[in-house]
Amino acid sequence: MRGTCRLGVERERLEGEDTALFDVRCPRDQEGGPDVAHGGWTAAVLDECLGHVPLLHRVLSVTAELSVSFVKPVPVERPLEVRAWVERRAGSRWYIRGELVLLPNRALLAKASGIWVQRDPAHFDRHQRWLAEQDAEPGRGD
Ligand SMILES: CCCCCCCCCCCCCCCC(=O)SCCNC(=O)CCNC(=O)[C@H](O)C(C)(C)COP(=O)(O)OP(=O)(O)OC[C@H]1O[C@@H](n2cnc3c(N)ncnc32)[C@H](O)[C@@H]1OP(=O)(O)O
């Protein structure tokens, strides 16, 4: 699959049944320090790539938990790769891990693990109804 992505994910493909690979490049406008990515970009791109593993299996899911270890500063505008794999599945939960590496040597820059929960296509419609209820009853909070 190819396309443009504001996070800089340039290409994604499945490698076998449970692993996906992503060609990534941190855009300059995601800089958080001199020539290095903002940590929010690193977390976001790992969320995006790991969350695409169920989608590549045609399963809609949302992130329930995400943990990120920032191992080294991530250079902007350099070829990077994310490898994401399914650790296990339990009920509607997908436990997924991933790593962000610097090409061509595959030096580890960050790693992540998280839980994605499978949803039905009405997930976002239910959210819109919930939001409308919030707007109708300000101060209720549930
Ligand atoms: C169809 C084909 C597609 C084709 C092509 C489509 C193209 C179109 C692509 C669009 C793709 C969009 C992808 C958007 C991806 C985001 O937007 S992710 C955004 C960030 N994440 C979110 O917004 C999630 C917000 N949180 C939630 O919505 C809810 O808390 C959750 C996570 C759905 C859970 O809701 P809930 O009411 O607690 O759900 P519930 O039914 O009680 O529990 C479900 C399961 O989750 C588990 N669980 C709940 N919370 C947690 C937690 N924090 N930790 C661990 N487990 C948990 C429960 O134990 C339960 O497990 P099972 O017993 O079923 O195994």
From TrEMBL:
Catalyzed reaction equations: (5Z,8Z,11Z,14Z)-eicosatetraenoyl-CoA + H2O = (5Z,8Z,11Z,14Z)-eicosatetraenoate + CoA + H(+); decanoyl-CoA + H2O = decanoate + CoA + H(+); hexadecanoyl-CoA + H2O = hexadecanoate + CoA + H(+); octanoyl-CoA + H2O = octanoate + CoA + H(+)
Membrane topology: Peripheral membrane protein
Gene3D superfamilies: Hotdog Thioesterase
Pfam families: 4HBT
Keywords: Apoptosis, Cell membrane, Cell projection, Cytoplasm, Fatty acid metabolism, Hydrolase, Lipid metabolism, Membrane, Transit peptide
EC code: 3.1.2.2
Taxonomic superkingdom: Bacteria
Family: Belongs to the THEM4/THEM5 thioesterase family.
Classification via PANTHER family: ACYL-COENZYME A THIOESTERASE THEM4 (PTHR12418)
Protein name in UniProt: Acyl-coenzyme A thioesterase THEM4
Organism for this UniProt entry: Amycolatopsis vastitatis
